[in-house]
Amino acid sequence: MRNNKFILLDRDGVINVEKSYLYEIKDFEYEKEVINSLKRLSKLGYKFVIITNQAGIAKGYYTKEDYFKLEKYIEKDLYEKGIKIQRTYFCPHHPDVTGNYGIECKCRKPAMGNFLKAIEEFNIDTKKSYMIGDRISDLIPAENLGINTVLVRTGYGKENEKKLKNLKQKPIIVNNISEFADYIENYIEKSFVK
Ligand SMILES: [Mg+2]
Ligand SMILES: [Zn+2]
After folding, report:
1. Ligand 1 centroid distance, CA of 135 (Å)
2. Could you tell me if 49 and 9 are in contact, meaning their C-beta atoms sit under 8 angstroms apart?
3. C-alpha 91 – ligand 2 centre gap (Å)
4. pLDDT in tens, 141-159
5. Which ligand has an atom closest to residue 91 CA?
6. pLDDT of residue 190
7. Residue 129 backbone dihedrals phi, psi, to 5 degrees
């Protein structure tokens, strides 16, 4: 039974401030209210996975090992703050470069490979779950799989608001993740919260 409600999160521009090919821990900086918002969502029974494109690996800006160092740091830091990320799925590929990672893959968003893996691995109930991203390419695969879509205006969100015509349905649009937590508390889970 696919009965687990999840929040699927893009990483850069959603969890942390978008810094273009971020890989060093010293440059990592949370977006405002992220910790608090994820805690609120966690209290309502939502679990979390991260799905992130990391073309910086394909482009040679940083290595897979560099990537894993930061991934570990983020997961550990969130865990210590009371938020468990069930798993981070990443894509190291990019079709336009040469080398090992220069392929047309099934995991680079807007492809849905990593979404399918997450749904399978955690029995995600797509109808009760949400994908939060700052790019349309984060939302297209979610929409195709019946996951609710959320565009945040952090990161590249404001620019991507102009590309909404590439989606079949209008996403939930919020200024930041905290507003999304408000939405869930006020409209979706209201009857369950006393
Ligand atoms: Mg992003
Ligand atoms: Zn890939």
Report:
1. 6
2. yes
3. 4
4. 999 999 999 999 999 999 9
5. 2
6. 80
7. -115, 165
Classify residue 186 by its DSSP letter. Answer: I
Contact between 50 and 177 (Cβ < 8 Å): no
Give this prediction's pTM: 0.96
Domains and CATH numbers, the chain: 6-192 (3.40.50.1000)
Residue 53 Cα to ligand 1 middle (Å): 8
Please give the Cα distance from 152 to 14 (Å, whole number). 7
Please list the active-site residues.
10, 12
Q: Which ligand is nearest to the CA of 90?
A: 2
Cβ-based burial of 17 (10 A; exposed 0-12, middle 13-18, buried ≥19):
middle
pLDDT over 70 at 191, yes or no = no
Amino acid at residue number 42: S
Alpha carbon 24 to its chain centroid, in Å, reads 19
Q: What is the pLDDT of residues 71-80, one digit of tens each?
A: 999 999 999 9
- Residue 1: per-residue pLDDT: 83
Q: Cβ distance 15 to 131 under 8 Å?
A: no
Query: Helix, strand or coil for residue 137?
Result: helix
